[in-house]
Amino acid sequence: MSAPLLIIQTGKPLPSLNRYGSLAHWIRVAAGVPARQTRVVDVSAGQPLPRLENLAGVVVSGSAAYVTDRAPWSEATATWLAEAVAAQLPVLGICYGHQLLAHALGGEVGFNPAGRESGTIALQLRAEAADDPLFAGLPATLPAHATHLQTVLTPPPGATVLAASARDNCQAFRVGPQAWGVQFHPEFATHHMRGYLRERAQCIARHGGDARQLVRQVHAAPQARHLLRRFIRQTRLAA
Fold it and tell me: Is the separation of the CB atoms in 109 and 75 below 8 Å?
């Protein structure tokens, strides 16, 4: 058997979305990777991370937790991620995973000064994205699904920022040849996004938004979703 893709779960879906499976399942399906080629570790439930050897790559999920809480499982995962990047293992962090990767590599994470970002947003690619293995060839502006309160306030030293949005200056970054963080959710389909908006309606209202209007504005984000498959092509699964 070839080396598996490791999916690190840092949380669980909202209760109303449990019928769609785990966060790892959403990621695996969007990435187009068979179950037999993946290994799932739920670090938020205390499961230990494996040795770095014999892994094809790593994807880190989103979470309802905050990186700034410095939970022991989160800090241990950050240490492991720093070692993975140093070993040049392909890594992709999503939302919480994006923030945790930034924290692990010396960046700063905190609450977004612009407030909550929720719904189908417009990603604005920076010029640096033109030569990036994941983002090359994509339109300068493309839709993506997002739901978060915290963000990467300062990218890690040496990081290349690849994308921004109206409410977030660091929607994506790369460190080294093959470690990426994305604040948005490439694994989300429209039903995932609508479900999060409905569940987070009160928080969205506190930040001046209208969840019902945001639900109506949700639309497919196929190019952002396809980034997961582009990432898989950077891993040893594609070898």
Answer: no
